[in-house]
């Protein structure tokens, strides 16, 4: 990947890798066991000024382009997918504020989010609606200058640590339109219940959110009712998919590092593992997919930053390819490491668990096939006619 970067991006990537090697990698398996990243690492990220990510400097942000955000995620995910998940959802909320927020909403939350004084989480999924978001049941009932929320969200990343939530629901009026609003943590009628025992992303404070006659100001509504599914969610999810693609890329890169060291050292039947053709094949496929995925990830970010009309599809292609490849190679990495890779404390065991989750979040593999399959059919049928 590094050879695809500009000099300034290479310097940034080296900085991110050395930050992760010193501050993340030594502690990541403890966090997974304890099912929570430490507050210390959040504070260190704040000290480094990383929380402002892709937000322009005028709002206290870092002004990173998508590639810089991506390579930051890649470097962090090699050591902790859970920590990468914090930046994923925090960025989705900040981008929602930047794109759709009013001046008052930005003044209230965006500057403080960039400094890391408050953290964000993104609440779309419900117990009865995941891939098919049109099935969400959370009700937003207008009452004077307030909105009353009733409903339940589930699997919300960093729900247990966040201060401000983007919450999606349906207007409980004659319009019945989909709607989104900002909800602060300590709002009466809002309860946060931790979820434990996940397969992967174990340290990412997953939570159920319950809204029971929860009263928020009408001015917390984002954009206007009717925009939630067509504009607000897709815009944020594009950032989510960039993050997930680079997380998967970091996993493939990590698999390569651990496996290459191991196959050069480990001997069986008087020869090194690398001298076995079956092992060479696994390493070759890992290296080739890392290269291919690097191009897809970087190109999708370039398209996004240049507002290419097809950028969202390119981001989906990168997400689809890289997450599936990450799970294949994490499987092979555990195979290559043998029993060592079966120990929870080894990075390849975590890669194996986390890579499965990447195929489910930010649009599952099957949902990508539904959308991309239709799009490719239209596109290539046109070419055939010419
Ligand atoms: C670790 C983790 C973190 C998460 N973080 C968040 C978060 O921060 N915020 C949030 O809102 N949500 C979050 N989610 C929820 C996630 O977005 C959903 O799990 C995802 O959208 C899939 O929904 P579901 O689990 O309800 O599965 P379902 O939608 O019930 O799907 C079940 C299976 O059926 C497949 N499927 C569904 N429809 C079709 C179809 N038409 N054709 C073929 N196959 C189909 C799916 O691909 C999947 O394999 C998180 C989930 C996990 C595991």
Provide a descriptive summary of the structure in words.
- InterPro entries: Acyl-CoA_DH_CS, Acyl-CoA_Oxase/DH_mid-dom, Acyl-CoA_Oxase/DH_mid-dom_sf, AcylCo_DH-like_C, AcylCo_DH/oxidase_C, AcylCoA_DH/ox_N, AcylCoA_DH/ox_N_sf, AcylCoA_DH/oxidase_NM_dom_sf.
- Belongs to the acyl-CoA dehydrogenase family.
- Pfam families: Acyl-CoA_dh_1, Acyl-CoA_dh_M, Acyl-CoA_dh_N.
- Its cofactor is FAD.
- This is Acyl-CoA dehydrogenase.
- The chain is of the alpha+beta class and 386 residues long.
- It folds into 3 domains: 2-118, Butyryl-Coa Dehydrogenase, subunit A, domain 1 (Orthogonal Bundle), CATH 1.10.540; 121-228, Beta Barrel (Butyryl-CoA Dehydrogenase, subunit A, domain 2); 229-380, Butyryl-CoA Dehydrogenase, subunit A, domain 3, CATH 1.20.140.
- Helix content is 53%, strand content 14%.
- It is built from 11 helices and 9 strands.
- It has helices at 7-23, 28-34, 39-48, 66-77, 81-100, 103-115, 228-265, 277-305, 311-337, 347-358, 365-385; strands at 120-123, 139-143, 146-156, 164-171, 178-184, 190-194, 207-217, 267-268, 271-272.
- The strands form 2 sheets. Strands 1, 2, 3, 4, 5, 6 and 7 form a 7-stranded mixed beta sheet that branches. A two-stranded antiparallel ribbon has the order 8-9.
- A hairpin with a 2-residue loop joins strand 2 (139-143) and strand 3.
- Helix 1 (7-23) runs parallel beside helix 4 (66-77).
- The longest helix is centred in the middle third of the chain and has 38 residues, at 228-265.
- It is globular and about 80 Å long.
- The mean pLDDT is 96.
- Bound molecules: flavin-adenine dinucleotide.
- The site of flavin-adenine dinucleotide (FAD) has 20 residues, from strand 1, strand 3 and helix 11.
- Flavin-adenine dinucleotide binds next to strand 1, strand 3 and helix 11.
């Amino acid at each position: 990947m590094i050879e695809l970067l500009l000099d300034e991006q290479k310097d940034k990537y080296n900085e991110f890798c050395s930050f992760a090697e010193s501050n993340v990698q030594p502690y990541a398996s403890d966090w997974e066991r304890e099912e929570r990243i430490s507050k210390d690492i959040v504070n260190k990220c704040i000290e480094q000024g990383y929380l402002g990510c892709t937000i322009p400097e005028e709002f206290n942000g870092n002004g990173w382009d998508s590639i810089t955000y991506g390579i930051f995620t890649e470097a962090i995910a090699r050591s902790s997918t859970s920590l990468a998940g914090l930046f994923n959802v925090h960025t989705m909320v900040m981008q929602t504020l930047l794109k759709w927020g009013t001046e008052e909403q930005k003044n209230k939350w965006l500057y403080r989010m960039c400094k890391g004084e408050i953290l964000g989480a993104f609440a779309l999924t419900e117990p009865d609606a995941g891939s098919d978001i049109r099935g969400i049941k959370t009700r937003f009932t207008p009452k004077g200058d307030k909105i009353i929320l009733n409903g339940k969200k589930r699997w919300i990343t960093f729900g247990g640590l966040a201060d401000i939530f983007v919450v999606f629901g349906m207007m409980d009026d004659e319009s019945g339109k989909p709607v989104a609003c900002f909800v602060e943590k300590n709002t009466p009628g809002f309860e946060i219940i931790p979820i434990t025992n996940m397969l992967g992303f174990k340290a990412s404070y997953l939570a159920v959110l319950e809204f029971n006659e929860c009263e928020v100001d009408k001015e917390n509504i984002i954009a206007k009712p009717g925009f939630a599914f067509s504009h607000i969610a897709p815009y944020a999810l594009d950032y989510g998919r960039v993050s997930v693609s680079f997380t998967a890329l970091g996993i493939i890169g990590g698999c390569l590092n651990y496996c290459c060291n191991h196959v050069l050292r480990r001997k069986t039947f008087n020869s090194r593992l690398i001298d076995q053709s079956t092992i060479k094949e696994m390493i070759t496929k890992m290296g080739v997919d890392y290269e291919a995925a690097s191009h897809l990830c970087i190109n999708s970010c370039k398209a996004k930053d240049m507002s290419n009309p097809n950028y969202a599809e390119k981001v989906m292609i990168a997400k689809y390819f890289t997450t599936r490849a990450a799970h294949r190679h994490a499987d092979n990495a555990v195979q290559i490491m043998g029993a060592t890779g079966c120990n929870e404390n080894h990075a390849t065991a975590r890669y194996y668990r986390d890579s499965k989750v990447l195929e489910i979040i930010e649009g599952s593999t099957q949902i990508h096939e539904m959308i991309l399959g239709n799009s490719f059919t239209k596109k290539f049928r046109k070419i055939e006619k010419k």
